[in-house]
Write a structure and sequence with these properties.
By secondary structure, this protein is an alpha+beta fold. The protein folds into two domains: 134 residues, FAD/NAD(P)-binding domain (3-Layer(bba) Sandwich), CATH 3.50.50; 150 residues, no CATH class. A hairpin with a 2-residue loop joins strand 1 and strand 2.
């Protein structure tokens, strides 16, 4: 927090919004011969035992299509979701033998069970008129009560107004406001509103989305979003009036929204340091299953965009020879991106 708000500190936002990052990644992948398959949920992994070792040969999509890997499968699913997919990939219990594949899956499950989990989020997404707001309105705000622990439920609220930097993200005369509680929501408060749907199940089934027809859900959503409204009022005092103006948008997201659309197990933001420690103890890109690599926020170096990008780089480097890695390092050095 002190680094973020100290004099001279900056917070970068991508011009064109977060979608511009996704588009850049797609462009790079396709430029190098890759393909992006949308609406292609992976339900299972193709696992087999070979020479006494567990091996992953590809994936099975929700429509039953099998895709075989040339070198291996890299999964960015959080480890808790990966475990569900792996368990779904094993034979039925009554026919399952304790072979190398089962043992490898059990090892990954043990790692997942021992990994601490952060809380979830409440989100407030607004589009409001910008008239009469200060010209020097700041983009980033952190609202918290210093008398309480920063991790206390709903204490820290982060607010971003990206249209301060990039007005093209909204129609002329409007601002985008995004406020959220920082991984401090207890998913247990929402348990009674959902069916037994885990993070690897399809979020689009009627069973998975039935919670949003429950009046108790709307009541809890309104109750839990109040902290967000009060925080935004510290920056834009008349925000509740502005959101009622024509053309405005008000969207409230909950831990259940986070789980449904982002496939986050129990709506979690990611791993937390083990109890009594201040640092993460995370696995690397390799797994006990040959041909199955991992990246994402449950791998080293952890949560956040920079950490996840680094984990993807580590997984990629694991799959190529040393000569290719040296070639890339020389290229980065020539561009001044490597000291």
């Amino acid at each position: 927090m002190s680094d973020l708000h100290k004099p001279g500190a900056v917070l970068d936002y991508p011009m064109g919004g977060m979608g511009s990052l996704a588009n850049a990644l797609v462009s790079g992948l396709e430029r190098h011969g890759g393909q992006i398959a949308l609406n292609s949920r992976v339900d299972k992994l193709l696992l087999k035992e070979k020479d006494g070792k567990a091996v992953c040969e590809g994936v099975v999509l929700s429509n039953g299509k099998k895709i075989y890997a040339r070198k291996g499968v890299v999964s960015n699913a959080p480890i808790w979701n990966m475990v569900t997919m792996l368990q779904n990939s094993l034979p039925l219990e009554e026919t399952r033998s304790i072979d190398a594949v089962t043992e490898a899956v059990n090892k990954i499950k043990k790692t997942a069970d021992e990994m601490e989990m952060t809380g979830s989020f409440m989100h407030l997404h607004l589009g409001i008129p910008s008239d009469n707001l200060p010209d020097d309105l700041e983009c980033h705000h952190s609202i918290l009560n210093f008398d309480e622990d920063v991790t206390a439920p709903q204490n820290l609220v982060i607010i971003s107004i990206p249209t301060v930097f990039d007005p093209s993200l909204a129609p002329p005369g409007y601002h985008i406001v995004h406020a959220y509680t920082a991984a401090s929501e207890d998913f247990a408060e929402w348990d009674s509103l959902v069916n037994d749907i885990d993070g690897a199940s399809s979020p689009s089934t009627s069973k998975a989305r039935s919670y949003n027809k429950n009046p108790e859900y709307e009541a809890l959503k309104a109750e839990k979003s109040e902290a967000l409204w009060k925080a935004v009022e510290c920056v834009i005092p008349d925000v509740r009036k502005r959101v009622k103006e024509p053309g405005s948008i008000e969207l409230i997201a909950t831990p259940l929204t986070h789980r449904r659309y982002n496939l986050r197990h129990r709506g979690t933001y990611g791993p937390a340091p083990p109890e009594g420690k201040d640092v993460w103890e995370l696995v690397g890109s390799t797994t006990p299953i040959d041909g199955l690599l991992a990246c994402g926020d449950t791998c080293f170096p952890g949560i956040g965009l920079p950490g996840v990008a680094a984990s993807g780089t580590i997984a990629a480097n694991t799959m190529v020879n040393v000569g290719k890695q040296l070639e890339l390092m020389n290229e980065l050095k020539e561009k001044g991106a490597l000291q």
